[in-house]
Write a structure and sequence with these properties.
With about 675 residues, the protein is mainly α. The protein folds into two domains: about 425 residues, MFS general substrate transporter like domains (Growth Hormone, Chain: A, Up-down Bundle), CATH 1.20.1250; about 220 residues, Rossmann fold, CATH 3.40.50.300. The protein has 25 helices and seven strands. Helix 18 packs antiparallel against helix 19 and helix 19 runs parallel beside helix 21. It has a five-stranded parallel β-sheet, with helices on both faces. A two-stranded antiparallel ribbon has the order 1-2. The two termini are about 20 Å apart. The relative contact order is 0.10.
């Protein structure tokens, strides 16, 4: 399945409230928030304990903390994909409860045993259970919310994941304040800040298990009904084959991998980088908070700000911009500027992250969704392990360097150089990802940016409804009426509910306007008045007929839509096409077809097919040639949405070409999947 829908153009806050109003998802979200809080608190607690067990030895402490990072990430190398298969094959709810109970017991045991061996062993085991829990959770979300609310669901899910990090840090700081006061009440060796944090952390997972236990709506998983004899290895191979066959999924995974490669460099070098700016632990905490503040801003407001851009396009662009800010961060020697740049870096990373997860949820079939998410998470963790292990070594090998330019002198160390290299890699990955997934190859991103600021972005493919919207365009005599009827018959034979309409004339008001606009007795009409009359018909058409049908999940096929006004009144009447388009977008509240089929035919040949001519058909040949050329210009501006067919071919050949393109529409695939799910 493919998807190039833009972000829903609704305020993030209202979208979040809407999706959290779904009782089942609200419960799942609560479990995600508490579990994420436990993960962050567990990271702080285990690294703090690693430092405590070093008995003040600086070298030992640093190696011990690095060891915690590595053992937390290493299990993904071996168990990640297998965990995803299990999430697909078994009861997801029971699996999540089982994992939470074991995480509770393991975190509780760490301070009780109190040595390096068990700290690392328990951490590895915790991460193994987390690898099973996460894909089960990720694969469950798309089953609990409608497809048109998945973007909002991913927003609040990622906010739960990253927004709890500062909360965990605050909780850890509060525990540090109270550890001294509580030490007389607890046995010696069990009352440090790390100990108290691990106790609290363990009970957070027990609470999460209780929430999931009460959440009966979690599906077992599409793969749970598969034949038992099918081996896990075969299921895993099938998942890899699916990923390899999808260009979009490959681009997504490649992009996410590059993003976390760059992020790993920041994680591994941030403390040293802050120290080189002559700042201490407080500044390190502020920089840590700046990253997550930026992530929260990007996740919350990115979908609203970039509502006119397709997800495929904004994913690679946001990743590239985030990496550019990482390069800038590596060059900065001022702490205040570094914090500001870090917020921007985190914001664009948040946009890329929420976009990537949303696309994965929409692009991946339910039966392989768990292993796909697990595969992504595994690659991310592997890249982090490699970077965390190599970045400090690279920084140490580079060392400090002082540069003199006349009277100006500045010093850069290995951490800054390594972050610079990671940023360059991130930019390269972002550009490749963008080029792999871009859905408007003939239109530059800068052109879209300018058009968006003017409110004229022509590539909007909004789909805020469960239906499918297809429009047919073309010059006179191109055969639109014949092809719309053939497509309607085909879709209805395959179980789709179809509404066939036309402009003007699809509504009672439209029929009256059609008589005025096309009757030869009407005579000359001001080009602007003509454009406004078509816009009025279109506004009423969308309001009274098209939108209700789309909200009901129907396939709407219309013979002519707003592109006709752009071509006929814009190019034909020699008005500005952009102005005509803006009027129609306002009239339709930016409702744009999922697919526009343009039947292209030389104007003279098309006109020769007509038995009689109405007011527009009677216009000179040059008028119709301008219309044809404008249609081709429009199609070239957005190849993802427009499909041009040679209308000189036979009726059967044209119909076959149209079917081949229509059956690829994501919304039709979604409809078929939903029907199968409801039948079950």
């Amino acid at each position: 399945m493919t998807n190039s829908l833009p972000y829903p153009g609704v305020p993030a806050g209202s979208s979040s409230r809407s999706v959290l109003a779904i009782p089942a998802f609200r419960k799942l979200w609560k479990s995600m928030a508490v579990s994420s809080f436990g993960d962050w608190l567990g990271l702080l607690a285990t690294t703090a304990m690693a430092q405590e067990l070093s008995n003040g030895d600086y070298t030992t402490a640093n190696f011990a903390i690095a060891g915690v990072f590595i053992v937390r990430l290493l299990p993904a190398v071996f168990l990640g994909p297998i965990a995803g298969v299990i999430a697909d094959r078994f009861d997801r709810r029971k699996l999540m409860i089982f994992c939470d109970i074991f995480r509770f017991a393991l975190y509780l045991s760490i301070p009780l045993v109190g040595n390096y061996f068990w700290l690392y062993t328990a951490t590895i085991l915790v991460e193994c259970f987390t690898l099973f829990w996460s894909p089960a959770k990720e694969a469950t979300i798309p089953n609990m919310v409608p497809a048109n609310k998945l973007e909002s669901a991913n927003q609040v899910s990622l906010l739960a994941a990253y927004g709890t990090a500062p909360i965990a840090a605050i909780a850890f700081s509060i525990l540090a304040l109270f550890s001294t006061a509580l030490s007389p009440l607890l046995p010696d060796g069990y009352s440090s800040t790390a100990d108290l944090a691990l106790y609290l952390d363990s009970f957070s997972f027990l609470y999460t298990a209780l929430i999931v236990y009460k959440l009966r709506e979690i599906p077992k998983g599409a793969g749970s009904t598969a034949v038992v004899q099918e081996s896990i290895g075969k299921s895993l191979i099938d998942g890899f084959k699916f990923i390899n066959q999808s260009k979009i999924i490959r681009g997504l995974i490649f992009g996410m991998l590059g993003a976390f490669f760059a992020a790993g460099a920041v994680i591994g070098l941030a403390r040293t980088f802050v120290g080189d700016l002559n700042a201490g632990d407080a500044a390190y905490g502020v920089l840590f908070g700046a990253v997550f503040t930026g992530l929260a801003l990007g996740i919350s407001f990115g979908p609203k700000i970039f509502s006119q851009f397709s997800r495929r396009r904004i994913f690679g662009a946001a990743l590239t911009i985030s990496s550019l800010f990482l390069i800038l961060l590596a060059l900065i020697t001022n702490l205040v500027l570094a914090i500001f740049v870090t917020i921007l870096l985190g914001a664009f990373a948040g946009i890329s992250w929420v976009t990537g997860f949303t696309m994965l949820g929409l692009e991946v079939a339910d039966e392989v969704r768990g292993r796909t998410f697990a595969f992504v998470q595994s690659l991310i963790r592997i890249s982090l392990v490699l970077v965390l292990a190599t970045a400090p070594i690279a920084a140490a090998a580079i060392g400090k360097h002082t540069f003199k330019f006349n009277d100006f002198e500045t010093t850069y160390n290995g951490a800054a150089f390594t972050m610079l290299a990671a940023g360059i890699i991130g930019v390269i990955v972002g550009i490749i990802s963008y080029r792999t997934m871009r859905d408007r190859p003939n239109v530059s991103l800068w052109s879209d940016v300018l058009s968006a600021f003017r409110g004229e972005l022509g590539g909007i493919t909004d789909d805020m409804h469960p239906g499918t919207f297809i429009s047919f365009e073309g010059g006179e005599g191109s055969g639109k009426s014949t092809q719309t009827q053939l497509l309607k018959d085909y879709l209805e034979s395959n179980g789709e509910s179809v509404l066939l309409t036309r402009e003007p004339g699809g509504t009672p008001l439209g029929k009256k306007l059609r008589e005025i606009l096309l009757d030869n007795k009407t005579g000359n009409i001001s080009p602007r008045a003509e454009a406004l009359m078509y816009a009025a018909d279109r506004a009423n058409h969308v309001y009274s007929l098209i939108n209700p049908a789309l909200k009901a999940g129907k396939v709407v096929i219309t013979d002519r839509y707003l592109d006709s006004s752009v071509a006929y009144q814009g190019a034909g009447r020699v008005l500005l096409p952009a102005e005509v388009a803006r009027i129609s977008r306002w009239a339709t509240e930016s409702l744009i077809p999922s697919l526009t089929i343009i039947l292209d035919i030389p104007a003279a040949k098309g006109l020769s097919r007509l038995q009689s001519r109405d007011r527009l058909e009677a216009e000179p040949l040059a008028f119709h040639e301008r219309i044809r050329q404008e249609y081709l210009n429009i199609a070239n501006s957005d190849p993802e949405r427009y499909f041009v067919v040679d209308a000189s071919s036979s009726v059967e050949e044209i119909h076959e070409q149209i079917l081949e393109r229509v059956i690829k529409l994501p919304s039709l695939v979604v409809n078929q999947r939903e029907k199968k799910r409801f039948r079950k």
